[in-house]
Amino acid sequence: METIEAFAPAKVNLTLHVTGQREDGYHLLDSLVMFADVGDRISLRRADKSSLTVTGPMGQGVPTGPENLVLRAVDLMGEAADITLEKHLPAAAGIGGGSSDAAAVLSALRDLTGKPVPDQGLSLGADVPVCLAGKAAIMRGIGEDVAPVDGLPELHCVLVNPGVAVPTGAVFKGLARKDNPAMDSLPAQPDFAALITWLQRQRNDLERPAIAAQPVIGEVLQEIAATDGCRMARMSGSGATCFGLYATEAQAKAAAGRLQRDGWWVAATRLS
Ligand SMILES: C[C@](O)(CO)[C@H](O)COP(=O)(O)OP(=O)(O)OC[C@H]1O[C@@H](n2ccc(N)nc2=O)[C@H](O)[C@@H]1O
Ligand SMILES: Nc1ncnc2c1ncn2[C@@H]1O[C@H](COP(=O)(O)OP(=O)(O)OP(=O)(O)O)[C@@H](O)[C@H]1O
Q1: How far is the CA of 248 from the centre of ligand 1 (A)?
Q2: Which residues are annotated as a binding site for ATP?
Q3: For 169-217, how does the pLDDT look when each residue is reduced to its tens digit (9 = 90+)?
Q4: Please, what are the domains in the chain?
Q5: Ligand 2 centroid vs 185 CA: distance in angstroms?
Q6: Which intervals hold domain GHMP kinase C-terminal (predicted)?
Q7: N or C: which end of the chain has fewer CB within 10 A?
Q8: SS3 letters across the chain
Q9: Which segments in the chain show pLDDT lower than 70?
Q10: What is the pTM of this model?
């Protein structure tokens, strides 16, 4: 049977405004999301019974049982498959590792079987619908309302994770306010300078509670901001991964070199 190779890119929340809370406890978001050229790799083959092998430099500690989001994605599609998941992204890191893996599997099985993806995979995680869209988008609601955004410039970026896992639910619970202002409207077809100017005026509302839970995130942000050419530094998702944006690839690569520390995961990448 045919083996399919899929790429599951890191998701970066360039902004993340928490604008309200639903009765069921989930928070309402307003977030600009882009995707990196670093990510996990998945190979998948339909089978009579599902199986999962996890490999790769960041594979340690990732569940191999039915709780892994790739197996839950196969189940959701009513299928069975042998999967190898090569982990390059840190887990529980705010860059959507598990959600992006799940979205890659959903999309591979949708293409293979012609079956639709139930509810854009939202039941697997709030980040799954935007990962399924797989391109720059504004995400609203609890994650189910995804509006693709065209005309953004590619961004040179450094991702830095200090090796501490941050549980998403706990960070949301630490928010002082749930009803923060939404994003300003995004300028149409912004060039790099205009996008940076706009981004600097927006926020990640989860940064403060994440830093309270893991103060090293504050250090990471300061260290990124101090690298040559850094135009802005912010946390992605619920952390602990933070990003820096640069005008050139050379600056992003030089910054990645300077940010290497024992136990830190650092990647120079391009966002689109
Ligand atoms: C913070 C973000 O990464 C931003 O992109 C996502 O909203 C989180 O996406 P995710 O990791 O796929 O999240 P889920 O696995 O669905 O939810 C984990 C936990 O985060 C909290 N959660 C998540 C999404 C949301 N809109 N409101 C929430 O309050 C809930 O406590 C939930 O139990
Ligand atoms: N395929 C997978 N890759 C990584 N973690 C997984 C996977 N499937 C299940 N998990 C579990 O999900 C938890 C969250 O991991 P994930 O990488 O999705 O991070 P996240 O911070 O929730 O991402 P985000 O909030 O940006 O969507 C981990 O602690 C891990 O035990």
Answers
A1: 32
A2: 90-100
A3: 999 999 999 999 999 999 999 999 999 999 999 999 999 999 999 999 9
A4: 3-148 (3.30.230.10), 155-271 (3.30.70.890)
A5: 30
A6: 191-261
A7: N
A8: CCEEEEEEEEEEECCEEEEEECCCCCEEEEEEEEEEEEEEEEEEEECCCCEEEEECCCCCCCCCCCCCHHHHHHHHCCCCEEEEEECCCCCCCCCCHHHHHHHHHHHHHHHHHCCCCHHHHHHHCCCHHHHHHCCCEEEEECCCEEEECCCCCCEEEEEEECCCCCCHHHHHHCCCCCCCCCCCCCCCCCCHHHHHHHHHCCCECCHHHHHHHCCHHHHHHHHHHCCCCCCEEEECCCCCCEEEEECCHHHHHHHHHHCCCCCCEEEEEEEC
A9: none
A10: 0.97
